[in-house]
Amino acid sequence: MGHRAGLGEPGQRPLISGLFDAKMANVVLEFKASAGDSEPQNRPVLVVGQLSNLQQLSWAQVKGKLQPIVSKETWQSALSALNPNPTDSCPLYLSHATVAALPSRVSRHNSPSSAHFLTRLLRTSLPGGASRCIVMVCERSEVFASGCAIARAFPLFSRRSASSRRADKKTVVVEFIIVGQDNGPLDLTTLECLSNAADGVRLAARIVDTPCNEMNTDHFLEEIKAVGNELGITPTIIRGEELKQKGFGGIYGVGKAAEHPPALAVLSHTPEGATQTIAWVGKGIVYDTGGLSIKGKTTMPGMKRDCGGAAAILGAFKATVKQGFKDTLHAIFCLAENAVGPKATRPDDIHTLYSGKTVEINNTDAEGRLVLSDGVVYASKDLSADIILDMATLTGAQGISTGKYHAAVMTNSEQWEAACVRAGRSSGDLAHPLVYCPELHFSEFTSAVADMKNSVADRENAQSSCAGLFIGSHLGFDWSGVWVHVDIASPVHAGERATGFGVALLMALFGQASEDPLLNLVSPLGAADPPSGDQMERDCKRRRLV
To answer: What is the pTM of this model?
Structure first.
């Protein structure tokens, strides 16, 4: 990213990136139709967007946030000086006012919003201060992804002693200036949607960032209850020995050695007039030592993040229900700590999962698929779900398959595979398909003494696909509903910070069932061809989400 001396004051040095955590923490984020006018000395400002969008702004649209210390000539000179490759920023006056440019173009597997670059630009270019302003310049179709990307830049969790002593909250006001078609100001409904989505992203990131001594299964259940309380929903909780009695051999087997017992928790939104039932199933391993197949000293740090799927589903459920959701929606949390102790599952043990199928354990560090298998079968058998999506930090191999930015998606439906990719681009939570081929890959789990093993024979044969197939096998590969598996192991974090990944993806993917116009806009249906007559007849009773 390029930095140059400020045009208003020569010799200005770029912000020191090491300070970003302090200036980004303890922030109250507000989305407003208009942030109002204020001099940059009193309220530092960052104006950000693609260069072509910034060039469409009139001086009248930004002068109230820049005058008197930044003149029209300085503003125009800054725009002329910007040369994004892929991004660029230019201080306008000391550290009080900055303009920053996003990439001018992106490839087909990236989001048109350049969401990842936006988050990075905020971390490096947003001025410090107790009251700050971000002016986001984009097209209306990019508002949702941009709002979620902005939220990612402001983590909530910190245990730095200096931040705990400093109780004062900092305010960041975000104003969108829409360019292109439909370029009026954002209405209150859109602002509310952005606020709830941002809260969901930051909630998920806070849970993932919180270490297990503060986010064990007890604490996670409290987070679920708090969301339920806010939405007027009482969670269903099956816990400890009751899991064993009811046949949840996967969740119980993984979590039975921990001090805090495992649990299956469910939040259910059941509106009148619902035409189908959707279940989101989240992997909530609050810490993963690997169990007796223990991780090493370099691979275990960071395993507090193994609850990223459950955290994303909690954040998305809260925001989605607040915005109004027309169909029945269940959020299922499979919570356990994969600990080492006298009660720990051993390699060679055989567990019977909720599906009734038996699993020979050959790797206790392949535990996420065990808890999720119980979760998806509960969604099908007990909740009669038509569409089941599981989300998990499932495999290290995901990062090798689809990288640090794209979730890996596998599904029994070609239509939903394409929808996930489209929702990824429209939400900024990128997604890319994995191979779905059970007839070639499921033999990796062959066991001589049980229905299957829990880990593959050949670790060089589509590992992430195989891990997903294990979960799907408990539903049955001939299951008539839609099953989607989303592996978010790498995109759940960027460096040492959680991203809240998955919240925006879920909100967009199921946006067609929302009552919210912004979520309707970013839903995959918006980019799909209208259904043919025979499709409409088949789907007459069901709301087509994609």
So the answer is: 0.94
Residue 163's region, left for phi above 0, alpha for psi from -120 to 50, else beta, is alpha
Has 295 been annotated as catalytic? yes
- First CA to last CA across the chain, in angstroms? 38
292: phi then psi, degrees, rounded to nearest 5: -65, -25
Confirm whether 542 is a catalytic residue: no
- pLDDT-derived band at 546 (thresholds 50, 70, 90) equals low
Label residue 230 exposed, middle or buried (CB < 10 Å: 0-12, 13-18, 19+).
Answer: exposed
454-506, pLDDT tens digit by residue?
999 999 999 999 999 999 999 999 999 999 999 999 999 999 999 999 999 99
Scored b (16 or more CB within 10 A) or e, 132-170 reads: bbbbbbbbbbbbbbbbbbbbbbbbbbbeeeeeeeeeeeb
Residue of 63, 295, 326, 544 with catalytic role: 295
| Per-residue pLDDT reduced to its tens digit, 141-190 | 999 999 999 999 999 999 998 766 666 789 999 999 999 988 889 999 99
Q: In whole angstroms, what is the distance from residue 43 CA to residue 28 CA?
A: 15
Identified catalytic residue from 369, 425, 453, 497 = 369
